[in-house]
Amino acid sequence: MLDLKYIRDNADEVSKRLKDKGESGDLSQILELDKRRRSQLQEVEQLKHERKVLSEEVNRLKRAGEDASSVIDKTREISKQAKELDEAVKQISDTLQTELDKLPNLPHASVPIGPNETHNVEVKRWGDIPEFDFKVADHIEIGDRLDLFNFEWGSKISGRGFPVYKGAGAKLERAFINFMLDTHTKDHGYTELFPPFVVNRQSAYGTAQLPKLEDDMYHAALDDLFLIPTAEVPVTNIHRGDILAMDDLPINYCAYSACFRREAGSWGKDTRGFLRLHQFNKVEMVKVVTPETSYDEHEAMLKNATRILELLEVPYRVLELCSGDLTFAAAKCYDIEVWSPAEQKWLEASSCSNFEDFQARRMNLRFRRDAKSKPEFPHTLNGSGLATSRLIVSFLENNQQEDGSVRVPKALQSYFGSDRITRPL
After folding, report:
1. CATH code, 64
2. Co-location of 74 and 130 in the same domain
3. Enclosing domain of residue 129
4. Among the listed residues 211, 91, 177, the one whose alpha carbon sits nearest the alpha carbon of residue 416
5. Which domain-ending residue is among 101, 132, 165?
6. Which residues are 284's β-sheet partners?
């Protein structure tokens, strides 16, 4: 959520930056509602002051044995006016909050300006694109050949987009998750958590999935709970409503979770195999930091994510997203994409985002620099470290061998238990 005072004092700048993000930039309704609310609040305060003065006059008249009925009547009338105005202020405040909830975060000054993904900027590329002297198989063919997963079973059980991992495929998925968690905790300094896979409405609002993205979420209506689209939601909300001490920061959490996304707006996009799923696995990194360190922490998070791919020997590139391609809540974001030899294109495997204080304001998450200082809003960040669905595509295709097996890089061998994935006997 944006700071209303900042909007009020910097309306032209806010409008421009909203337009950079693809919004209309029209703040007129918000500014008018804010003006009316503040004006009516002043009226309420004036009426309450008058009521206090009249109440004191009633007491004085009664002590003196004089008639106070006319003053009492006037006091009651002012109380009625104040109550009606209080209700009007509440209605305006609720409407104002609804409009504020629709505003996305503002892009950071360093973000490239552009309307869509064609204006994203490649900032790094790592690894050699492999050349094969045999016909390249895609991940579905490799999976069928090695009996790694079964999409038909998943469709039968749940529907399209819910894969079943099988045999060495299930073992590979588990190896990815354990390897990533161990690397982030042992090497990168994160504390591992294992959060719930459902959250309440307040949590989904706090990290800005609601109200904008409700159609993309699975909703258990009876309990008003949502299946999480990412572990970012439960993990960041752990400190919702808290006032942290300076010594608590920075907070670095990582967590595995299954992730659930209806992908309501993905009609017509490539849904083959693991390219687009309704349920997938991911290891998430979450940071809560001081405002002055957040962009250094953002770069560190990006390095933590890309190091996973380097250890797995998977070619990748990093894109800095332009203003029009940023998510609703992000002020700045890097996407990490892995190479698919079969698709001959890059596939998104991670996003690392800095939300600045946008989520913290929605969650009322604050910190104090010392015992005497006023609470401030920290910055929150999150990054996939990594999602396994696109990773498994790139991993299988880049490491396929002419004999039909798949090579397992050294960093993963102790987790998988072998240097090759072969078809079971």
Report:
1. 1.10.287.40
2. no
3. 117-421
4. 177
5. 101
6. 255, 384
Q: Are residues 60 and 135 in the same domain?
A: no
The reported pTM is 0.92
Q: C-alpha distances in angstroms, 123 versus 50, 113, 303, 316, 334?
A: 63, 15, 13, 11, 9
CA distance 260 to 268: 19
Residue 262 lies in a domain: yes
Tokens read off for 297: 């922490």
Long-range residue pairs from 262-265, CB within 8 A, at least 24 positions apart, any chain: 262/215, 262/216, 262/217, 262/218, 263/161, 263/216, 264/215, 264/216, 265/215, 265/216
Does a structural domain hold residue 236? yes
Q: Which candidate, 128, 21, 136, 109, places its Cα nearest to that of 396?
A: 136
CA dist list (Å): 296 to 244, 382, 425: 20, 13, 50
Q: Phi/psi zone of residue 224: left (φ > 0), alpha (ψ -120 to 50 degrees), beta?
A: left
Give domain status of residue 146, yes or no.
yes
Give the integer Cα–Cα distance in Å for 275 and 271: 6
The residues that are catalytic are 261, 276, 348, 351, 390
Token pair 């993000």 is at which residue? Answer: 21
**88 and 15 inside one domain:** yes
Show pLDDT as tens, one digit a residue, over the chain (425 residues): 999 999 999 999 999 999 999 999 999 999 999 999 999 999 988 988 988 888 888 898 888 888 888 888 888 888 898 889 999 999 999 999 999 999 999 999 999 999 999 999 999 999 999 999 999 999 999 999 999 999 999 999 999 999 999 999 999 999 999 999 999 999 999 999 999 999 999 999 999 999 999 999 999 999 999 999 999 999 999 999 999 999 999 999 999 999 999 975 444 456 678 988 999 999 999 999 999 999 999 999 999 999 999 999 999 999 999 999 999 999 999 999 999 999 999 999 999 999 999 999 999 999 999 999 999 999 999 999 999 999 999 999 999 999 999 999 999 999 999 999 998 86
**Structural domain includes residue 393:** yes
For residues 325 and 360, state if they share a domain. yes
